[in-house]
Design brief:
With 196 residues, the protein is mainly alpha-helical. The chain has a domain at 85-195. Helix content is 76%, strand content 0%. It has helices spanning 7-27, 34-41, 46-51, 55-83, 88-100, 107-124, 131-151, 158-177, 183-195. The chain is globular and about 55 Å long. Residues 33-52 bind DNA. Pfam families: TetR_C_31, TetR_N. One of its GO terms (molecular function) is transcription cis-regulatory region binding. Residues 10-70 form the HTH tetR-type domain. Keywords: DNA-binding.
């Protein structure tokens, strides 16, 4: 048994992944550095290179961890949606949570979180090592979104889902360009109009 597969090693590796995921969400790819991750995890600097072959491996683990947590939250919310209100508003909120992240209640923080999310998505294109993972995560997200629409009484085809996601993305990007303090509200309006 190597140190990385002992219970202590697994805890340390998990702490590093979680720390890297938080840094990624807070500051994008540039925030994920060996020293920053180790400090956030409360572990020695050498632990990042001990448990990960490269910074790319650590970033990949962080992206996967964060995305899987968001997908799990979405699945839990979908189960709640199936037993409660399944109106357009509930559907729009859940879809936007999956595409833009959940709202915190702080308008400025939410707008910043959406901006950082889109910066990360665009920056992923410059990281070929993430492409296989992003294809897998995108397929899982699309499956979840398709299920959300189906359970909400608005089943969509693969093509229609692609159009709705593009509609949200376009609304958000336009709002970010216009320095709109509520990119989520702009996306909500567009999605509600499309589903009406």
């Amino acid at each position: 048994m190597t140190a990385a597969t002992t219970p202590k090693g697994e805890r340390r590796r998990a702490a590093l992944v979680e720390a890297a995921a938080k840094l990624l969400v807070e500051g994008g790819f540039d925030a994920v550095r060996h020293r920053a991750v180790a400090e956030r995890a409360g572990l020695p600097l050498a632990s990042t290179t001990y448990y990960f072959d490269s910074l790319e491996d650590l970033v990949t683990a962080a992206v996967e961890h964060h995305s899987n947590a968001e997908l799990a939250t979405g699945r839990r919310r979908l189960e709640e949606l199936a037993t409660r209100n399944r109106g357009v508003q509930a559907t729009v909120e859940l879809v936007l949570d999956m595409l833009l992240g959940p709202e915190s209640g702080d308008q400025a923080a939410d707008a910043e979180a959406v901006l950082l999310r889109y910066e990360r998505l665009v920056a992923t294109g410059r990281r070929p090592y993430l492409r296989p993972l992003m294809r897998t995560l995108s397929a899982q997200l699309n499956e979840l979104l398709t299920e959300i629409f189906a359970r909400s009484g608005t089943p969509v085809s693969e093509t229609e889902l692609e159009r709705l996601v593009a509609l949200v993305d376009g609304a958000v990007v336009n709002a970010l360009i216009a320095v709109d303090p509520e990119p989520r509200a702009a996306a909500a309006r567009m999605l509600q109009a499309a589903l009406a």
